[in-house]
Amino acid sequence: MRNVIIAGNWKMYKDMTATAELIEGLKSRLTSLPPRVTVVICPPFTSLAIAGTLLKGSPLALGAQNMSQHDEGAFTGEISWNMIRSAGCEYVILGHSERRQYFGEKDELINTKAKKAIASMLKPILCVGETLAEREQGITDRIITAQVRGVLSGLTRAEMSSVVIAYEPVWAIGTGKTATPAQAQEVHQMIRKLVSQIYDWPLAEQTVIQYGGSVKPDNAAELFSQNDIDGALVGGACLKADSFAAIVNAAK
Ligand code: 13P
Q1: Where are the alpha helices (DSSP H) in 120-225?
Q2: For residue 244, what is the domain's CATH number?
Q3: Active site residue ranges
Q4: Residue 156 sits in which domain range?
Q5: Binning pLDDT at 50, 70 and 90, where does residue 177 land?
Q6: What is this structure's pTM?
Q7: pLDDT digits (tens, 9 = 90+) for 205-228
């Protein structure tokens, strides 16, 4: 059975006080996890250090929402792999559709960041997803194929053991419109097949492919019951301890 990873992408929410509150709420609700279930929280950069401290000794892992492709230097406003690692991060979300849409990130840059993350012992959560217009034009497969090939370009089989893929249809993010379990499963199966073509079946079988886009406590269990859905990347519903814990419990 594949591992399951539930990650909470806090986006630009929660100052340090609110971070501490939410983490305490999560720690009291999620005291133990089955070995195949990993839970990652991804607060904003300013909250990573306090989150790292508060999470010590808990079963919850820490991730960042982005990082620079550079090691260090005169890059005003950027944050390096070393900075997020020293705060306690094990994961980093790369290529989220909001980074693509508002900050112009392209597959090539996301691929460069992914290589940097893996070389720095971080596990990248690589996001792909089509827009509503692309889905309506019937080109979802083509878009997802190009994105997956682009973000994985040149990664070795060994490097792939650190990679998590997150399928997040842009039209389902923050809209309350979840892809139906069947719609999500169809794309997840396609991504897994593509990974098997680029690498091989044993590797594709192990690759964790998360679904993201309006995942809520009341739709999580049905999404997780699909063969190729291995957890979730949660936005809005991860900002409250009750709802995020309920989503995690649906995966147990
Ligand atoms: P929502 O769960 O708010 O739709 O956000 C999904 C997302 O973008 C997670 O990265």
Answers
A1: 132-136, 140-152, 157-160, 181-198, 201-206, 217-224
A2: 3.20.20.70
A3: 96, 168
A4: 4-249
A5: confident
A6: 0.98
A7: 999 999 999 999 999 999 999 999
